[in-house]
Design brief:
Number of strands: 14
Strand order of the largest sheet: 3-9-8-7-6-4-5
Oligomer: single chain
Strand content: 15-25%
CATH topology of the largest domain: Aspartate Aminotransferase, domain 2
CATH superfamily of the largest domain: Type I PLP-dependent aspartate aminotransferase-like (Major domain)
Helix content: 40-55%
Structural class: alpha/beta
CATH class of the largest domain: Alpha Beta
Shape: elongated
Distance between the termini: 22 Å
Largest sheet: 7 strands, mixed
């Protein structure tokens, strides 16, 4: 860079903000931080550069300026960041599970920016019910009499058990005593809910007679848990939900079905998932059903509870319901997600999880090949497009795989993995058989460019020795 400048002023040789914004690096920053923060950081870097010149030192070159910009941006970078999920795990718990539909994200953003009718009755002018915003929708979509939503499914299970069986026995099959994410176990959830576990049957075989023999005057609840995060195969038997409902009716006991990952559209999906539908649990006569909002529903984190009106009413008046209640942004996102299901064809197109499950392998491959066009020849030589296998994840449908496609990036897998995770828009892939893979099934439409930019920066950094 020249230090003479026009009229002898070296500051005139510094690039303009607009010129820097046109740089490839700035494109990635704008995608991650937004145009205004990047513009402010560019101005800040140029101000620093002018100060350097004023001290009599040489002006920083363009690469040094861009490094200053990145430093300024990262100095105020939040801990919770957007990442590109190229792992092939559709419901990746560590990456936030289900991405929201555009309508749901927009609803959450709009409701957060002002006052709302969260607990206000616009018709009567008095206090309203925060749960009314979703209750009718849940009941309509599931066929249940009444419903309640809380902040996650563990809370839903704890609230139901505490309400229906506090100080009494909960009868559940030994083969259904699951451990959920983070090391939390159903026996501990039951205990902390104030009830006593009464395990029946064996790990692989439990019959309805096992439940029947366990019923005593101390029994408060018959609980069935769908094994959503594991499978027992071979010499197995379980009591059907229908048989437990019949037993519960004859014994005067409520029957609860914890689905974990609830599915509203089973037949409409292009792939067959070995998961029971929410409607099937209702049709079987379960008194209360619980499941997650951020798994197969494709909405925000929430625990969805529905069933008989008198039971849901008891849950609403339990003091724990307030501790487990949803905030206005989550309620807005959940309501918007549920509304999409009123037209199943719209839900399949609009909800990212359903769209990912339904996208044909050929379409995923086309997106992966099209993204190669954004790479320089040097970077493109590092990539080959290959078939892959995606999974559902999120503690749902173990063993389920779906054909996919993506990039295999040549080079040391651990190095590539670490480098892409450190990008301005972090890209998370997976290492398989010593190779680094980027599965495009979980790369959201529109994010392909971010994958290309990340790989370009990786190759450029290796060339420069950084």
């Amino acid at each position: 860079m020249s230090t003479g400048g026009v009229g002898g002023d070296p500051r005139r040789d510094l690039p303009s903000v607009d010129a820097l914004l046109r740089r490839e690096e700035a494109e990635g920053w704008v995608a991650r931080w937004g145009r205004n923060p990047v513009t402010q950081a560019l101005r800040g870097a140029l101000t620093e550069a002018r100060a350097v010149l004023a001290s009599g030192k040489p002006a920083p070159d363009t690469e040094a300026l861009l490094a200053m910009v990145l430093r300024l941006l990262e100095a105020d970078r939040p801990s919770l960041r957007t990442v590109v999920n190229a792992t092939g795990v559709i419901l990746h718990t560590n990456l936030g599970r289900a991405p929201l539909a555009e309508a749901a994200a927009r609803a959450a953003a709009e409701i957060s920016q002002g006052y709302s009718s969260l607990e206000y009755d616009l018709e009567g002018g008095g206090r309203g019910d925060r749960y009314a915003h979703c209750a009718e929708l849940v009941s309509q979509l599931t066929g249940s009499e009444s419903s309640l939503v809380v902040n996650n499914n563990a809370a839903a299970v704890a609230l139901a058990i505490n309400t229906l069986s506090r100080g009494r026995d909960v009868v559940v099959s030994r083969g259904e005593l699951v451990e959920i994410g983070g090391g939390f176990r159903i026996p501990e959830v039951i205990e902390r809910s104030g009830a006593f576990l009464r395990a029946v049957g064996t790990t692989n075989r439990t019959r309805v007679d096992d439940y029947r023999r366990a019923i005593t005057p101390s029994t408060g609840l018959l609980l069935k848990i769908h094994p959503s995060n594991y499978r027992v195969q071979g010499f197995v038997e379980e009591a059907s939900l229908e048989s437990l409902v019949e037993l519960g009716r004859s014994a005067g006991l409520p029957v609860m079905h914890d689905l974990g990952s609830g599915m509203l559209l089973r037949e409409e999906l292009a792939v067959h998932l070995p998961e029971p539908s929410v409607q099937a649990s209702v049709a079987a006569g379960a008194d209360v059903v619980t499941w997650s909002g951020d798994k197969l529903l494709g909405g925000p984190q929430a625990g969805i509870i529905h069933g008989r009106s008198e039971i849901v009413k008891q849950l609403r008046f339990n003091p724990l319901a307030r501790a487990f209640r949803l905030d206005k942004m989550t309620l807005a996102a959940l309501e918007a997600t549920l509304r999409l299901y009123l037209a199943p064809e719209r839900a399949l197109l609009s909800i990212p999880v359903l769209r990912m499950l339904s996208e044909p392998e050929e379409s995923v491959e086309r997106r992966a090949r099209a993204a190669l066009q954004d790479l320089s020849p040097e970077a493109a030589r590092r990539v080959s497009v290959a078939p892959m296998r995606s999974v559902l994840g999120g503690g749902s449908t173990p063993g389920f795989e779906i054909a996919s496609a993506g990039w295999v990036v040549s080079g040391p897998a651990q190095h590539i993995d670490a480098s892409l995770r450190r990008q301005d828009a972090p890209v998370v892939g997976r290492i398989e058989a010593g190779c680094f893979l980027l599965d495009f099934r979980t790369v959201l439409e529109g994010q392909e460019r971010l994958v290309s930019l990340a790989l370009e920066r990786l190759v450029k950094g290796e060339r420069l020795g950084s």
